[in-house]
Write a structure and sequence with these properties.
Length: about 325
């Protein structure tokens, strides 16, 4: 039996459910969010070819480029993206008509203001899932991502919706990620865990403490979904380091986000530092949502990282 929980959000997380949000529909397939600390370029799932994004591939929506005043080289693999909405599934092979459904169906880029945009996707062809993701660049260079979706039909055979996001990191010195956790089945105090996946689809998924692995078919091809590690996550955040910059992904406890990783998701030497979310017993017409933040800043050690992200983790805990 599936024992994951889902956040239904606080309501009105995006223009999907908040009719008061004013936006304009972009005439191009990208938008630049910038402040003195960082610059992020958000793209829909169409191909883009600009001086800042040469030969960006179709299908890869989300954050095509993220640079910091202290690191002008983008964090993400050129041509692909971070915080990229990848998969919709129900854990069954029969239901997976298209592995990368969010890549294949049109998105609308909505401009809210100079630091906030949304990617709206009408109900997709197979799962009929309508969704909207909001990307906001905060004053300290942190990206906040709010996601909402509404199932417009229910044919999820295992009675859950599985959703997956990927961030393809370009050539970090160490593919590992780090989180607070412990071995599954133990009651030990939480400690720092170095998450290592020796190859794609092996020890790739780290569950929230107390959650059970969702029921999936034995031949289910999305291997980052159902190949758990020996660890569980006791605090809803993790980080990696790339070119002396910390990459910190933080989540609301109530949303029960699962961490995932691949050493080669973006190509040899380009790991994927990912996450996934499960909606249990979905209902047609009901909105579901979560909130997360991605911080990006110079890394000076764990103590500094904990202090610098404290305000964001407190926000997510209380909202």
């Amino acid at each position: 039996m599936l024992q994951v929980s889902c956040g239904t959000g606080n309501g009105q997380l995006t223009s999907l459910t908040d009719a008061s949000v004013k936006f304009s529909r972009s005439r191009q397939h990208w938008a630049r969010l910038s402040n003195p600390i960082a610059t992020a370029i958000i793209v829909d799932n169409e191909a883009v070819d600009t001086p800042e994004l040469p030969d960006h591939r179709s299908g890869y929506s989300g954050v095509a480029s993220l640079v910091h005043q202290k690191q002008k080289r983008s964090l993400f693999v050129p041509g692909i993206a971070g915080l990229n909405f990848e998969h919709i599934h129900d854990g069954t092979t029969a239901g997976l008509v298209e592995k990368f459904e969010p890549r294949k169906f049109p998105m609308e880029l909505r401009i809210i203001n100079q630091t906030t945009v949304e990617l709206y996707q009408p109900p997709t062809g197979n799962w009929k899932l309508e969704s909207c993701g909001r990307y906001e660049l905060l004053k300290d260079g942190t990206l906040e991502y709010r996601f909402e979706c509404i199932p417009r039909a229910v044919d999820f055979r295992n009675d859950f919706i599985g959703l997956f996001w990927a961030s393809y990191i370009e050539q970090p010195e160490d593919n590992s990620i780090f989180f607070r956790g412990r071995k599954i089945g133990r009651s030990d105090p939480a400690r720092w865990i170095r998450g290592v996946s020796p190859r794609h689809g092996v020890s790739s998924t780290h569950r929230p403490a107390g959650a059970a692995t969702p029921r999936v078919d034995s031949d289910f091809p999305l291997t980052l979904v159902n190949h758990p590690s020996q660890f569980e996550v006791t605090e809803p955040w993790y980080f990696g380091v790339c070119r002396n910059m910390a990459v910190v992904q933080m989540f609301r406890p109530q949303d029960q986000i699962w961490i995932a990783q691949s050493p080669s998701g973006g190509g040899q030497g380009n790991p994927a530092w990912d996450f996934q979310w499960f909606i249990r017993k979905p209902k047609v017409g009901q909105s579901y949502g979560f909130v997360m933040r991605m911080a990006y800043f110079p890394y000076q050690g764990r103590k500094q990282l904990i202090q610098q992200t404290e305000v964001h983790r407190a926000f997510l805990k209380n909202n």
